[in-house]
Amino acid sequence: MLYELRDIKRFYNDRCALSVDRLAIEGGKIYGLVGPNGSGKTTLLRILAFLDEPSEGQIIYKGSSVTSQKASLFRQEVTMLLQNARLLTRKVKDNVAYGLKLRRYDSKTVKTRVVEALEMVGLQPRDFLNRAWHELSGGEAQRVALAARLALRPNVLLLDEPTANVDKVSEALINQAVIKAKREWKTTIIMVSHDLGWLYSTADEILSLWGGRIVRQGPENIIPGPWEKLENGLYCKRLRDGQKIYLSGTPSQSGVVSISPSEILLAEYPERTSARNLLYGFIREMAYCNGSQIRVTLSIGEINLVALITDEAARELKLSPGMNIYVVFKATAAKWL
Amino acid sequence: MEYILSGIAEAFVLLLKGDEEVYSAVSATLRASTAAIIISLVIGLPLGFLLGYFDFPGRRFFRSVFDALLALPTVLVGLWVYAFISNRGPLGGMNLLFTLKGVIVGEVVLALPIVIALSAQSIEELDLSVRDTLLTLGSSGKRLLFDILWEARYGMLMAAITAYGRVISEVGAATMLGGNIKWRTRTITTAMAFETNKGQFAMGIALGMILLLIAFIVNSTLSYAKRRRQTR
Asked: Total domain count for chain B?
């Protein structure tokens, strides 16, 4: 096991930003972190990158407990690309070589690694090696920042929204480079991305965060409250477009519910159904996930739901992004968090 | 009008033929201001770094004190330092009054708050992302501090040049502490003030042109540092 987190809590001025009872992360895999803003994704990444210490709890990395002395040692093989990553005020080659020189690689290795890393992120070394930091576009700067991490051939690469503010070309190149790092050096990748389609299709595991907690390892549909109690004992949420969601059970204090993607069915026509919920929406994204399954992201009113269906079913229904579709699930599918 | 034109013409003659009096004042100015700025940087940059980087009780207070000292009137500095280094003052035994060293002391007092306040500000403006960036690339310890300083170098350069600009152009402290002694403590600005009073217009204009040239160099360097600091 690469990382083990036990009873980790991180507070910012009394506010608990992260609370993880148990988390195990295996080496050589790609992990995706999902969750709304403020759910603790960045806090978790920073702790895993040994940038921040948890306020409570224990982290074990490669079998040894992490102390502040060991943290700087572990940072030699664990690196993170921060959100809005910045470059050092130096030339591109000096940016990429910085970490290598710290690790005292000989100049020949430094040179080879710098060229290799720049090529990995699609920047022609000939054109970019001698550019100054201020002579790059936003997307190029982000790729140089990633190259500086890839050059280290890190054991763990943590990525916080690596493609949030970059052009389409840079986005594709960054995504390719990340997959290549995993394949070639067995780098463990843990990342946050707004591009859920890509995340779900690449990640071996998805961790869903909500209010600082890991609510589940696996795809997750999270619907926040408020819920209105009906006379028949069900709880109802009115979406902005007037559609209603009915769920059974007892809401927790947070009023947050999750519905397993496998509980959600798709229908071309509004058929009569015994399920309590029949909603109308459209397909936002489709992506392959775990071989023969397809992960369909649906927009219904202001919420997004994810359904997992077989590729055979997708073909029969002739599903495609942008298509309008009916979404069916039972009131008992609710898991109150 | 005519005497202004003939003053300018004479000034060129003084500059071109290498008038000793003119160049003695220039040399005194450069020696005093360079020494003052080096001392101020050696003391001020580390203090500015401490003030901008670490959070400690009283930090805000010190920051506002140094910010206020940015606008210190030069004659007031002259007065204070005079009080300390005159024969009756606590440092009277060092015989600094009316020497170039005395001028340097005054200029350090003027430059130091500028160096401290501006370098603290440039470290603050770097924000935590620079530190995080260096940490994620594996830096730590002394190396980390050094590299943070290096990332703030254009801000530091700005602090140094702003301080230099102030020191080289001030006249109050240099007059009071140096005494405008010919060949010894006469600087460009004190010479200009006194030569003009004596009706020696050409000398004043010649020195003025040199001061203008220095100010121009200082300001172009300053705007270069500003531009570099803003782009990333």
From this structure: 1
